[in-house]
Amino acid sequence: MTIATRRQMARSAGLVSVLFAASRLLGLLREVVIAARFGAGAELDAYLAAFRVPDMIFFLVAGGALASAFIPTFTACLAREDDPRRAAAWRLASSVANLMLLASTALAIVAALLARPLVATLIAPGFGPEQQALTAQLMTLMLLAPIIFGLSGIVMGILNSFQHFLAPALAPVLYNLLILLSAWFLAPQMGVYGLAIGVVAGALAHLLVQLPALLRRRPLYSFILGLDNPDVREVGRLMGPRVLGLAAVQINFLVSANLASRLGAGSISALNYAWLLMLLPQGIIAQGIATAIFPTLSAQAARGQTAALRSTLNAALRAVLWLTMPAAVGLLLLRTPVIQLFLQRGQFTADSTAMTAYALAFFTFGLVAHSLLEVITRAFYALHDTWTPVKIGIGAMVLNLVLSLLLLRPLSFGGLALANTIATTAETLVLLWLIRPQLAGLGGRRLLASLGRALPGTLAMAGALLLFLNLAANWPSWLVVGGGILLGGAVYAAFALLLGRNDLQPLLRR
User: Fold this and answer.
1) Which of 129, 241, 310, 378 is the most exposed place for a label (fewest CB within 10 A)?
2) CA 325 → CA 243, 320, 334, 456, 492, distances in Å?
3) Minimal CA–CA distance to 352: which of 102, 129, 35, 56?
4) How many CB atoms lie within 10 A of CB 314?
5) What is the DSSP letter of 285?
6) Cα gap 509→505, rounded to integer Å
7) What whole-number distance in Å separates Cα of residue 9 and Cα of residue 492?
8) 67 falls in which pLDDT band (50, 70, 90)?
9) Does the model's pTM come out above 0.70?
10) In 249-261, which positions are buried (b, 16+ CB within 10 angstroms) versus exposed (e)?
11) What is the pLDDT confidence band of residue 503, given thresholds at 50, 70 and 90?
12) For residue range 190-222, what is the model confidence (pLDDT) as tens digits?
């Protein structure tokens, strides 16, 4: 590899990283604008509930096929030396795209025809008749999105297989931008219907921005299904476990929406805002670390380097513990001023802030488990064990359902957040236990020692923040959040430098 090629790759990686950051920023701005327009009320509850079926169709039909099944199979077809025109790869892409379009369109039509009964019995039985009608209408409109997204996802997989990442990274930026613009310009005149139009327009932009890059690869499209094609069957075989795992996640969301719909206006919205705020540190910390170590884990597993794989996983888990424990405590203690700073304006009132803060308090206790889960599942995938995480995930789904029913009455929608936290924590602990035999251990003593070293800094940070919050009770939210982050970060960093140097060095090297 030449130096110029390396520089070109570095520039591309930097540009893609900037686009990912821009997408997250636009996603946050999108929620800020939506919160100002709709607050945490009945209309937004209907919009969020209407998302459940379109999301489920996408994840069940297309979501499981992209990274876990289509990309490796398509890449293998591209690499066949006896096929210089790459005809087999394009036949595979055509078959998968056609099958995906047929399946998603058929499911979308059925869902549209059954929209009212689906909403009344499955999605939001607690809504009143008018709110159920609104939810059904929004769902029918947004059912166009999974059809478009499915095709866009296939295009994204093709481009990634050709080592082209710019257009796929730009796609979610445009998606968030279109929803943000619809909330700003369409919602004042059209209400929540403007958001639904923005979702469909964003999905279309997600596809269109990638088409020029696809056309430059001179694709050979065929109107075929290829059910007898071994490559198509391989995609189906590989996506099976992933689809089941995604189905479990979507069922959890569906159950939460169903139960929250019975708890009064704003319950679904408050849960959604709290969930998104919890995902911010989880995405920055855990997904970043998991993405960085996944190629290393896969290479070590392929070479049979069990000891090295165990060491890499152990280092990643320790780094996640060190970073997510203070993040969870900080988010828990600063949750109200954080919500006030980012969301409390327009229709998002002080009552909306209180509801969101109540749900977020329960979600933050699961931040560490959610983050560890991102890393541990990558280890199973590196070992080519996709079924174990799926089976444990289905068990966690059942546990979440039972706990949701038990905790709903005493804790209202906060019980749904707590049920998610407990189920995810149990899922993470079970997976940690089950991977030990495959790695001849997990370095449990080092993990416990790392936890013991991180705990004093976390407790000191919590004490400092509690004193600070008492002092800053009447300060503006931006000053409370900024001062709290600086103070808490400084206290924890001092303890980390003193006690956690060996735990954090592997992370800093990566």
Assistant:
1) 129
2) 31, 8, 14, 11, 10
3) 35
4) 20
5) I
6) 6
7) 36
8) low
9) yes
10) bbbbbbbbbbbbb
11) low
12) 999 999 999 999 999 999 999 999 999 888 899
Alpha helices (runs of H) in 229-364, residue ranges in sequence order: 230-260, 267-282, 288-302, 306-333, 335-342, 350-364
The contacts of residue 266 (CB under 8 Å, 6+ apart) are 39, 40, 41, 42, 45, 351, 352, 355
Read off the amino acid at residue 503.
D
How much is the pLDDT for 5? 46
Helical axes 42-50 vs 129-142, angle rounded to 10°: 40
Q: How far apart are CA 171 and CA 152, in angstroms?
A: 9
Residue in 199, 66, 52 with CA at minimum distance from that of residue 115: 52
**pLDDT tens digits for range 375-386:** 898 888 778 787
Which long-range CB contacts under 8 A does 483-487 form with residues at least 24 apart? 484/330, 484/333, 484/334, 484/337, 485/330, 485/334
Question: What is 49-76 written as a DSSP string?
Answer: HHTHHHHHHHHHHTGGGIIIIIHHHHHH
Round to whole Å and give the CA distance between 134 and 230.
45
For residues 181 and 198, the answer to whether their CB atoms sit within 8 Å is yes
242 neighbors 68 (Cβ within 8 angstroms): yes
Q: How far is CA 434 from the centre of its chain?
A: 24
395-450 pLDDT, tens digit per residue, is 999 999 999 999 999 999 999 999 999 999 999 999 999 999 988 888 888 888 88
Tell me whether residue 1 is exposed, middle or buried, using C-beta atoms within 10 angstroms of its C-beta: 0 to 12, 13 to 18, 19 or more. exposed
Pick the more confident residue, 152 or 247: 152
CB of 287 closer than 8 Å to CB of 370: no
- Rounded to whole angstroms, the maximal C-alpha distance in the chain is 73
Tokens of 404: 């949701």
Please tell me the distance from the alpha carbon of residue 232 to that of residue 257, in angstroms, as a whole number: 35
- Element containing residue 173 per DSSP (H, E): helix 166-181
Q: Which two tokens stand for residue 280?
A: 């911010």
**DSSP per-residue codes, 294-319:** HHHHHHHHHTT-HHHHHHHHHHHHHH
Q: Is 384 left (phi over 0), alpha (psi -120 to 50) or beta?
A: left
Cα separation, 411 vs 25, in Å, equals 32
The DSSP code for 223 is -
Q: 403, 347 in Cβ contact below 8 A?
A: no
Residue keyed to tokens 């995405």? 283
The pLDDT of residue 1 = 36
Q: Tell me 81's DSSP state.
A: T
